[in-house]
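Section 3.1: Structural characterization of target chains.
Under the original work plan, the team committed to producing a structural model for every single-chain target entering the pipeline before any wet-lab resources were allocated. The record below documents one such target. The sequence was received from the expression subgroup and is listed exactly as submitted; it comprises 128 residues.
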Amino acid sequence: SGNLIPEAYREHINQYWRIGKYSTPENDEIDILIVEVKNQSKLERARTTLRNFAINRLKEFEKEYSLIAFYSKEDQGADWRFSFIKMEHEASFDDKGKVKPKTDLTPAKRFPFLVGEHESAYTACKQP
């Protein structure tokens, strides 16, 4: 049945699973998830919401990276959206000169790819 979906994402997501993790040679861990969205249009048009779900999960579980495969049962999983989300931390100074930690996220447009039966997969194939 998957994991608990936060209230803010329930109209977009049916369920999700953490299917594993990958450890890089630098010992960074990347969570690998599969997320079932409510319908095909959510896969194609709800990119910001899906990205925000990924960010929420990273923060909740204190993770830095996640590779997520989104799909819909509506097309029997013929098309998928893969997203790589990365947290970036830096320090900045506030008005009083105190150091404030700041968290940035990789831009939503930068690492998501639609792949599958109805997609060309050109962008995903051209990535380094």
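The longest strand covers residues 79-93.
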